[in-house]
Specification:
Layout lengths: L12 H13 L6 H8 L3 E11 L2 E11 L7 E8 L4 H17 L5 E8 L7 H17 L8 E5 L5 H14 L26 H13 L3 H5 L11 E5 L3 H13 L3 E7 L2 E4 L6 H11 L9 E3 L3 H4 L2 E6 L16 E5 L8 H9 L3 E3 L1 H4 L2 H15 L8 H19 L5 H7 L5 H26 L5 H20 L4
The structure holds glutamic acid.
């Protein structure tokens, strides 16, 4: 008898997000119609536009999806990738709604993208494409400081955000808040300190929170504390690099493998992350980094480690490779890296999954700080810095006088530390990530749910439902 094949897995991210939503919705007491409204994507704008590339014209297709308007403006990144399509953008917009709700960022969810491979175009061509796309978004009111605020995502960065902001400004002369139309801008063009590393830093804050929780770790036979833990990383872009770098430099983790589209590099003794970044800047790739062994590109997911961090794209851990995954904690820095079939398999094997909608929300959290800075037109910490320093000095002097001896220099430096924008951003991000973790863990405990994704969705759905209920529905 012919062997029956396992049916192919549905990799449509929209269907996956929808199934995750439904699994959590069973646990919340919200009227069915309202659940349907929370789940639905409100608007999708698809645009096709020509740009002159060399002597030719190329037609590009872009999208901006607006998932939920329960809070405004709407927020979410712009992705440049050849894999971008409407379903993906709609799913990612939904994830943005849930993400913002979980970390109490008062925005609705949105996402945009253009189907293109950035490597195929030079900077001038990318600028023309970005400016033209921004023009299309302006003409349909899909961008604006109080309407919809893009940010970087896979394939875009500060450079693209500066082009978008400048285009928006050119079309809205004299607009006081124009620079709040996008976040993730360069520091010198209205950006904020700490935004570049925010998503990676948020991943680390989330991991630190988990590794303090003996109650959650014990049943999975994971020892508390990050020191000495082994990490395998997929994706050495902005998110992956910063997460790995902080874990390596501040938390005593050993990053043993890093994978990119052109292969995995492996060193069981640990990879020097800052040196690897320099190597990538110099050579354009992580490959051939001294002291590492080259493995194939999927190997980074299959290496035995304490913490596996997928920080690239969706659908990376699937039915195809789930049986080869050998981590204790799966930290989803990317959006949608794990398919439902793989998730079920890993949960059955007692792997702890920290879900994307919580773990990668550091980016949008600091985007919120940047947007607030832009509309207030003032750098955080500017007004109170000197007063704070004077008060700290006064306290130190009074303490020394009372004690009759001087404080050691290291204590004095720690106490007199000045608090600027960067410190404030980090402090706000840490508090946000810790608080959200505690909320999710508490929901999981109360509802006796073992998987944190369902608990995170319950948290998000309840908050969005509360907003809709308070606001009512416009007739
Ligand atoms: N693209 C990032 C994300 O997926 C950041 C979004 C933002 O800052 O608006 O969360």
């Amino acid at each position: 008898m012919a062997k029956r094949k396992t049916p192919a897995e549905d990799l449509n991210l929209n269907n996956i997000v929808s199934a995750q939503f439904d699994a959590a919705a069973q646990h919340v007491k919200v009227p069915k119609g309202l659940l349907a409204q929370i789940k639905a994507c409100n608007n999708v704008y698809q645009v096709r536009f020509p740009v002159k590339i060399g002597k030719n014209y190329e037609i590009f297709t872009g999208w901006r999806a607006e998932h939920s308007h329960h809070r405004k403006p709407l927020k979410g990144g712009i992705r440049y990738s050849s894999m971008v399509d409407q379903d993906e953008i709609m799913a990612l917009a939904a994830l943005m709604t849930y993400k913002c709700a979980i970390v109490n960022v008062p925005f609705g969810g949105s996402k945009g993208g253009i189907a293109l491979r950035p490597r195929n175009y030079n900077a001038e061509q990318l600028e023309n494409i970005t400016r033209r796309f921004t023009h299309e978004l302006i003409s349909k009111r899909f961008i604006g400081p109080g309407v919809n605020v893009p940010a970087p995502d896979y394939g875009t960065g500060e450079r693209e955000m500066a082009w978008m902001a400048d285009t928006y400004d050119a079309y809205n002369p004299g607009g006081m808040d124009n620079w709040a139309c996008v976040t993730g801008k360069p520091l010198t063009s209205g950006g904020i300190r700490g935004r570049r590393e925010a998503t990676g830093q948020g991943v680390v804050f989330g991991l630190r929170e988990l590794f303090r929780r003996k109650d959650i770790l014990k049943s999975r036979k994971i020892s508390p504390g990050l020191d000495g833990k082994t990490v395998s990383l997929q994706g050495f872009g902005n998110v992956g690099y910063h997460a790995a770098n902080i874990l390596h430099q501040e938390d005593g983790c050993k990053v043993i493998a890093v994978g990119e589209y052109d292969g995995t590099i492996y060193n069981p003794k640990g990879i020097d992350i800052p040196a690897l970044q320099k190597h990538k800047e110099k050579t354009g790739s992580i490959q051939k980094f001294p002291g590492t062994k080259k493995l194939d590109k999927g190997a980074c997911l299959e290496i035995a480690c304490d913490i596996l961090i997928p920080a690239a794209l969706e659908n990376q851990i699937t039915q195809q490779n789930m049986k080869k995954i050998k981590c204790k904690v799966l930290a989803e820095a990317a959006n949608g890296p794990t398919t439902p079939a793989a998730e079920k398999h890993l949960l059955d094997k007692n792997v702890l999954i920290i879900p994307d909608i919580y773990l990668n929300s550091g980016g949008v959290t600091v985007s919120y700080f940047e947007w607030t800075k832009n509309i207030s037109h003032m750098r955080f910490g500017l007004m109170g810095k000197r007063i704070g320093q004077a008060q700290q000095e006064g306290m130190i002097n009074a303490t020394e006088k009372l004690a009759g001896k001087m404080l050691p220099d290291s204590d004095r430096a720690a106490l007199a530390r000045s608090v600027g924008e960067r410190e404030l951003v980090l402090s706000g991000l840490e508090d946000t990530m810790s608080e959200a973790f505690r909320e999710i863990a508490e929901i999981a405990r109360r509802k006796k749910i073992r998987d944190l994704r369902t608990a995170a969705y319950i948290c998000a759905i309840s908050k969005v439902a509360r907003s809709y209920t308070e606001l009512g529905v416009f007739p």
